[in-house]
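Q: what does this look like with zinc ion bound?
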Amino acid sequence: MLLVLSAASVSTATASFAFAQPTSDLTAIPILWHIALMADGEPPALSRPNIPITWREPVPPEVQRAIVPYLNRYATLFPGWLEDLSVAYDPDREASMATSINYRNRWVILRVTGEWLMLPQRERDVAVLHEITHVLLAPLQNVTEEIKKSFLKEDAFAREMVDDGFESVCEDVARAIQRVGVMFSGLK
Ligand SMILES: [Zn+2]
């Protein structure tokens, strides 16, 4: 049965995250709570309540205000190995969003672009989920990169197939998580 969270539980959870209070309408309870609440019992604490955030200068305040609600929304999805999450603003980059990942040293830089700021809310959402999926797959991606270097050095087509596969999987997972969000938290 789906239970309803008390207001007290919601405010405690939001305040425990490292970001400022979100100001947009994307303040829904993290979606995994909704899934967890389908089983009996109390909601779990956020699994990543205090990831240190570094703003890579210059990130204008309006960009910070735009991205924070999305990061708050999906805080629970960041993997346990992530120790340092930075956010950079790269207005001219030709992509909706990009991520630099260093699994070995446990840091990630999420790059917000001008293109992302122009997207409608739902496409912004899936772009953030796509990048988080890249972060989740980083350990596998590292192994794959080593295999490409060792065994596919002479085979550009095979390397491209592997890269395409990663991109497709990230997009599929992002859209799957978003569909769950639509089902359980009313995201439109
Ligand atoms: Zn990608």
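The mean pLDDT is 78. The two ends are 23 Å apart (CA to CA).
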